Backbone:
């Protein structure tokens, strides 16, 4: 299993780019266990001894990925009409001795995702967004995940000298790109050399 975390602002264009990257990863690594996620599509529930990572497709459909100590045990799709937490709890307790079940707050959720992820791609496509992804970037660097992070910046987009100092200090890899297709190919190339099959070739 190889988890990819996709970060960026959620303006319509950047969000579209992230979703397209996610689709391309699924398509090109369909025979491997490469899972990619957008942060705002996810909830994480803890229920000792397992964690349930829940990817929301819409208001009534989701996928549950069950982990124990960082290893994926199983996954399945669910539909729900009312409370998502109740549905997840009900699904888990049928298979596992769930205790202390709760939904994790965003910082705990992000911490777990960063630990599970083998690669973190952050996309900065536009200057006029609020830059919330920089907060996520700084959090990831401060927690020691710099070796997993690639910072993708569209050519011509300016970033502050202070941010560049931090990226250099923590050894974050910086990649420019010119358009959506260029971004996709750069990310796919990076993953080709880091997924499980590349280690066997």
Residues:
């Amino acid at each position: 299993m190889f988890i990819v975390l996709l970060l960026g602002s959620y303006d319509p264009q950047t969000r579209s780019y992230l979703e397209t990257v996610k689709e391309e990863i699924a398509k090109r690594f369909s025979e491997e266990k490469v899972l990619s996620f957008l942060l705002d599509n996810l909830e994480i529930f803890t229920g000792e001894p397992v964690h349930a990572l829940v990817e929301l497709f819409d208001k009534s459909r989701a996928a549950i990925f069950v982990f124990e100590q960082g290893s994926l045990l199983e996954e399945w799709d669910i539909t729900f009409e009312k409370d998502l937490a109740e549905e997840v709890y009900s699904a888990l307790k049928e298979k596992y001795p769930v205790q202390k079940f709760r939904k994790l707050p965003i910082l705990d959720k992000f911490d777990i995702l960063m630990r599970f992820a083998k690669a973190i791609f952050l996309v900065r496509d536009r200057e006029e967004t609020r830059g919330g992804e920089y907060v996520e970037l700084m959090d990831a660097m401060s927690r020691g995940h710099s070796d997993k992070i690639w910072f993708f910046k569209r050519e011509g987009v300016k970033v502050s000298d202070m941010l560049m100092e931090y990226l250099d200090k923590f050894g974050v890899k910086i990649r420019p790109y010119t358009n959506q297709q260029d971004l996709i190919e750069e990310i796919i190339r990076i993953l080709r050399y880091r997924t499980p099959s590349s280690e066997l070739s």
